[in-house]
What we know:
Elements: H1 2-17, H2 34-43, E1 47-50, H3 55-72, E2 77-79, E3 87-92, H4 93-99, E4 114-121, E5 124-131, H5 134-149, E6 158-161, E7 167-171, E8 191-192, E9 195-196, H6 201-213, E10 217-219, H7 235-245, E11 251-256, H8 260-263, H9 275-291, E12 297-300, H10 317-329, E13 334-338, H11 358-363, E14 374-379, H12 394-397, E15 402-408, H13 424-431, H14 444-448, E16 459-463, H15 479-490, H16 496-508, H17 512-533, E17 571-572, H18 590-597, H19 607-610, E18 613-614, H20 625-648, H21 656-688, E19 703-705, E20 710-712, E21 714-718, E22 729-733, E23 738-743, E24 749-758, E25 765-771, E26 774-781, E27 795-805, E28 810-816, E29 825-832
Parallel strand pairs: 1-2, 1-3, 3-5, 7-10, 7-16, 10-11, 11-12, 12-13, 13-14, 14-15, 15-16
Antiparallel strand pairs: 4-5, 4-6, 8-9, 17-18, 19-29, 20-23, 21-22, 23-28, 24-27, 24-29, 25-26, 25-28
Helix pairs in contact: 3-5, 9-10, 15-16, 16-17, 17-20, 20-21
The protein binds 4-O-methyl-beta-D-glucopyranuronic acid (GCW).
4-O-methyl-beta-D-glucopyranuronic acid (GCW) is lined by residues 173, 181-182, 223-224, 301, 340, 384-385, 412.
Amino acid sequence: MLSKLFVLFGFIAADCVQAETGRQAWLRYAELKGPSLQQYREAIPAAVIALNKSAIAENAQQELVRGVRGMIGRTLREESGIPKEGAIVLGTEVAIRAAFPEWQTDEALKPDGYCLKTIRRGQLRYTIVAAQNDRGVLYGVFHLLDKIALGEAIDSLDERQSPYAPVRWVNQWDNLDGSIERGYGGRSIFWDDGHARADLNRVSEYGRLLASLGINGCAINNVNADPRILLPALVPDIARIADALRPWGVRVAISVDFGSPKTIGGLDTFDPLDARVTEWWKSKADEIYRAIPDLGGFVLKADSEGRVGPSAYGRTHADAANVVARALALHGGLIFYRGFVYDHHMDWRNFKNDRARAAYDNFRPLDGKFDTNVIVQIKNGPIDFQVREPASPLFGALERTNEAIELQITQEYTGQARHTVFLVPMWKATLDFDMHARGDGTPVKSLVAGTISERPAGGFVGVANVGLDDSWLGNQLSQANLYGFGRLAWNPNLSAQRIAEDWTRLTFGDDPDVLKTIAGIQLSSWRTYENYTGPLGLQTLTDITGNHYGVNVEASERNGWGQWHRADANGVGMDRTVATGTGYIGQYRPAVASMFESLATCPDDLLLFMHHVPYTHVLRDGKTVIQYIYDSHYEGAAAVRQYVRDWEALQGRVDEQRYSEIRAQLEYQAGQAQVWRDAVTNWFWKTSGIPDAQNRVGHYPDRVEAESMQLQGYEIVSIVPWESASGGKAIQCEQSQCVASFRYDGATGWRTIRVQYFDQNNGVAHYSLSVAGELVDAWAANDGLPTQKLDGSSSTQRVIAGIALRPGDEIRIEGVPDQGEQAALDYVEIGTDRE
Ligand code: GCW
């Protein structure tokens, strides 16, 4: 008893301390207020019974107790039989039917599906959570708690829910050393220093978040797999992680390296058709399944980006997938074979070459040759998680092969969690896109779920990459992407608005202004980001051979990676037409292909992905391509500035920690959006020679370039790429301290001073700013931006509002470098206050 109480209080105390760090995400169970609290207090029975005994069922019951205690302030009594009072009863359909023979249903639930039903016996009211399996019971409990959190009535329930697809998985690109490839939320929750972490509490917490969304599988290591994952010494580690996730109904999978039979297996080959290799995979699978009988399976990235694969022996992807599949089949395991296969040494001079063709060209000829427990895991678009891509044609081309769509929750090319980009609208655009695979009515979602062709497995995979940070993903608002992925995987017919609103209410509460502002930011954020990073299907104009973060318009050109946009003096865009281009468009079914092939019907949002056009080509809204590029960048940057103002209006209505984290994030994003805006617009101006009709590009009346200031110690440097710094130049300090100053020559008034400086990750430089001899601000360049260079990735903005300026005032910035970080400056802008 004592220990039970201790656990109870420990857990309540821990809850309070951690309450608003973001770690509880959308499962905060914050206390309800006002009349709804009273209603639930009246509606909620006092007892709960779990009819089935299993770790998952136990968790379901505990979760219910926890949620009701948090939201309603009532502690449910755990009973073992149906009491003679109202109660919440949890159980599988079989168990519920035995206890409530009067419960009739015609329609069978699918695996993981559940039903919430109110059954009345005289005066007594029982709230039933019935499911096909234990996992479904857990999902039903989460759904019941969601309803309470969202203020929905629970006294007369009659609801059935079944998942849209059997596969609802996340992948983690975690390395065994604890780093995460493309992870922005801290170090791995799973791994550290070559082994599973000693403390796997965060893994259990993650399992709870996943279960609340109906996610039922998780691959726990990078698809760029370290072959050591298959060493016998790692099996107990995998087993421990599986133990932490199992009570949440989440099956573990591992990513494997196709060369393993040779690298760690002692064979001299990994040829998939060699009998010794077949035997090796079989005994390896047996060994792992002995320790983890419910392992979900393997994920395999082969013949891609330097990974070995079947091509080493002239074998096909089907040969490779099947040799592993057969080893797993005996244990009910699946193999997710990644469709992300392409040549990254393509000759860029050949205008018929096209990376976008690769997935279809590689996999279409193999349709029907994969075993039934193989799932081809296909990225949403044909390139690589760019800010906008068309749906991969491969979705419509495989008729006899299981498919899963791979969506990237972690924001690799979409701002790395430093920019708020809610990806659900983007994912929905693909999921709802009709591939015309069997005439009309075959949207991508139905193809991946196998509902069209009755394929046995398939569904949704999200690359999540959560880490140890309290925010999980590195940005409080980015959590909505994990949430949104789960909701769509369960039901892709939900609207983006519904998902954004549910998430906001669960995560931040019910204040209507908070809801309006956050949902408003989220729902417009993808278009906003696209506007300043790569509109019209240009793809993200980032440093694609480097960190995939800052702006670098030409990084995609003249190399073998194939993310070309082919912008030159005369025009822009990849010609992927059948008539004159790479023929990529011909990979779609005729109805889709003809829509993309014709300039008259190709959507403007994908125009430059499909066609090469002159800058003067006129879009549907009457603008030329070049003017659209200018305007969209100004609109995008202005929209983020507005997000900051909108957010600031919420001060005091959102808890302090998350309020200030999000304010800082949005303010940073506003500065970066301006860097992108200026870089891309200047690059296209210089390249096309066509000026901005509104005369904004290249004209910055509020700006004082650092290189034109009075410099003491600072020296002028050229920045590469030139477009990532204003005027192509910046100043840097190679001494112990330097000064840059100038005299303000504008009108008297309250002003906001914006200092554009560089924050590399190789030191912590310090800056101070004084006005007319008075120190008004000092700051450290201590952000962990992903570069050591002076470029668009490190360029960042300090905003100093509320400064009274008079003509002739000296504005003086002092920079103190640190360990190679040179306290560099790009420019200062002086605007009217709060501009
Ligand atoms: O988007 C690219 C990433 C790689 C990743 C690869 C893939 C895990 O830049 O980091 O590798 O895709 O999806 O395999």
